[in-house]
Specification:
about 210 residues; alpha/beta; 7-stranded mixed beta sheet; two-stranded antiparallel sheet; about 25% helix; about 30% strand; globular
Length: about 210
């Protein structure tokens, strides 16, 4: 997967490649889908949610520019796969999920792997997690119609917010953005089209 899917498609951050190579993706999907765990596509995990394809997990992690230090906030725990990848890229990972059952399953899998620096919360992720702010990076794993103000507020100076945002008339037209907080300004970069499930919550598609 690392060589044929990630490196072949331009992922070059050594620590990100190592993290994707070390996390057993099959543990984060249902047993019936484990034979497809390393295909380059999203897979269903229940509650109308998906585990993202390996490339997008790697790309979002790379855009966060991890160096093994700092705190990262993940909006949308899902299966916990992205959390597990981030656990070796940042000192502490804080992850929010709306669906209780998904959060419980993610916690169980992370414990099985002995990952202790991921902290989970069941809540509306569009509010962020102010208690542990500011964050070196914030990764949003669901598409949003607009940027939630708390995310920007909870970024540290120089921090990166990676988020899929609606770019057309409907929720399926999305662009992956990276926003960098610098000197009181937000610098915006576009990193191509993408496809995520919609973010639900106060600043999402459904309040």
């Amino acid at each position: 997967m690392v060589r044929e899917q990630l490196e072949a498609l331009g992922i070059s951050h050594h620590s990100v490649l190592a993290a994707l190579g070390s996390v057993p993706r099959e543990l984060f999907v249902d047993e019936a889908l484990r034979g497809e765990a390393y295909g380059d596509r999203a897979l269903p995990i229940g509650a109308n949610q998906t585990i993202s394809q390996p490339w997008i997990v790697a790309r979002m992690s790379e855009l966060a520019e991890p160096d093994g230090t700092g705190r990262v906030l993940e909006i949308g725990t899902g299966s916990g796969y992205q959390s597990a990848v981030l656990s070796s890229l940042f000192e502490q990972v804080y992850s929010i999920e709306r669906v209780l059952e998904l959060s419980r399953r993610a916690r169980s899998t992370l414990r099985e792997l002995g990952i202790e620096n991921v902290h989970l919360k069941v809540f509306d992720g569009s509010y962020g997690w102010s208690e542990f702010a500011p964050y070196r990076a914030i990764l949003v794993t669901a598409a949003t119609p607009t940027l939630a103000p708390p995310w920007v507020e909870q970024l540290e100076e120089g921090g990166r917010l990676i988020v899929p945002v609606r770019s057309g008339a409907d929720a399926d037209s999305q662009t992956l953005l990276r926003l960098i907080k610098r000197d009181g300004r937000i610098l915006r970069e576009e990193h191509g089209s993408c496809r995520f499930v919609p973010l639900l919550g106060k600043y999402g598609w459904i309040a």
